[in-house]
Design brief:
- With 506 residues, this protein is an alpha/beta fold.
- It has 4 domains: 222 residues, Rossmann fold (3-Layer(aba) Sandwich); 88 residues, Rossmann fold (3-Layer(aba) Sandwich), CATH 3.40.50.1100; 76 residues, 3-Layer(aba) Sandwich (Biosynthetic Threonine Deaminase, domain 3); 80 residues, Alpha-Beta Plaits (2-Layer Sandwich).
- The chain is built from 20 helices and 18 strands.
- The strands form 4 sheets. Strands 1-2-10-7-8-9 form a 6-stranded mixed sheet, sandwiched between helices. A 4-stranded parallel sheet has the order 5-4-3-6, sandwiched between helices. Strands 12-13-11-14 form a 4-stranded antiparallel sheet.
- α1 crosses α9 and α3 packs parallel to α5.
- The longest helix has 17 residues.
- It starts with a helix and ends with a helix.
Amino acid sequence: MLDRYMKKILNSRVYDVAQETPLVMAERLSQRLDNRVWMKREDLQPVYSFKLRGAYNKIANLSDAECAAGVIAASAGNHAQGVALAARKRGVRALIVMPQTTPSIKVESVRRLGASISLSGDTYDEAYACASELAAEKKMTFIHPYDDPEVIAGQGTVGLEILREHSGDIHAIFVPVGGGGLIAGIAVCVKALQPSIKVIGVEPDEAPCMHEALRRGRRVKLKQVGIFADGVAVSQAGKEPFRIAREHVDEVILVNTDEICAAIKDVFDECRAIVEPAGALAIAGMKRYVKRTGISDADLVAVNSGANINFDRLRHVAERAEVGEQREALLAVTIPEEPGSFRRFCRTLGKRGITEFNYRYADEQQAHVFAGVQLDGGDKERHALVRQLKKEGYPVEDLTDSEIAKLHIRYMVGGRAMGLENEVLYRFQFPERPGALLQFLTSMGKRWNISLFHYRNHGADYGRVLVGIQVPRGSRTEFKAFLDGLGYRYWEESDCLGYKLFLGGS
């Protein structure tokens, strides 16, 4: 298999459209991690992503008859631009099916490259199904984003460049994983030429399709996929990439949203470039690997796979980066409701920087404070601070790892609702497009009263809403059936401690 793929990689014609991107040393990260950290800058490609390599290699190998019939693809971003550019280069008609939730900036980017666009469905899976039907109907060639040998071979040129550009020994190459096309291509190339180099995949912990497939020894289809790192938000690894990964990928590391945001900041600090969440996965995984193994004085390569990020998502990234770098703690602290208690609490915190302070009178005996505190010593200092506060007699809860606290509660502290009965708390996710919020509220209907509501647009393809609803205990089963019929992803958060302290009823 390796010889067959190496022949495809060496004969690949990706450089008709792609650039050989630089492998640059990350000086600050190298010093912090006590290793030599290298970044493969695929974010510098003409479409700001590695995807054009595989797309062009596939299209370049089509017959004249297939080119005459045109090509079709399903994508909400990087693959769409890669197919559009590759098709334009070969003079092939291209149709891209994109979800209706795709931000307009991505739609316009594809249209400028000369492709026709069809908007269908709210998710990639729905757009994929539509594209598959159209391909059969119009007899067009479907360009798969990752599950195709020619696409995999095109992505494999990234591995070939890394080996050519780095003259010394490489301990490991870290690769973002969605459907698996990129890591499959890099793995077959690297293991054929320098098998001692580790090839390590990195996935978000909310979209671990390849990690779960390798763990279980078979491909699995995830029931739910997180959408923060939308470039790798795939529910099932490709058949061919999985086959290759089982034999040639050393492991797949999982990272969380905060770690991804911290890695985006790391890349910006190194070279003043802003990569997309999927593009920062490799750096995040590398940092976790170094912490886990304690490795030092080694050469580590991270593939910065893309930079197609909406500008309005940067606010969310910046908010989460400090937590991801273990430089901020989010604490819920109960203080006595008496003169001078607020000042005494601040004195207990000492000279630490305060990132935010939310305080509201609760009752005559006590008040709750939501505080963001800057850290220099990471988790060790955070745990020490919690112990110190408890020693001083303050009831304290660490909310640093609470997703609902970071997404919603920190923006809502303003007093608890007195006399409110039968409130339950749910977190919803719905496809983001004009009118989506109104449609969501309309779907909720008039059967139950909404007693709390918080929504923020994070510049993503999906909106996130926190809703408090008054549901009598005798109606809970009926209400659960109602939620299941709405068609939105949801999570109950009624037991969240942050909710009980800052937002819940008396």
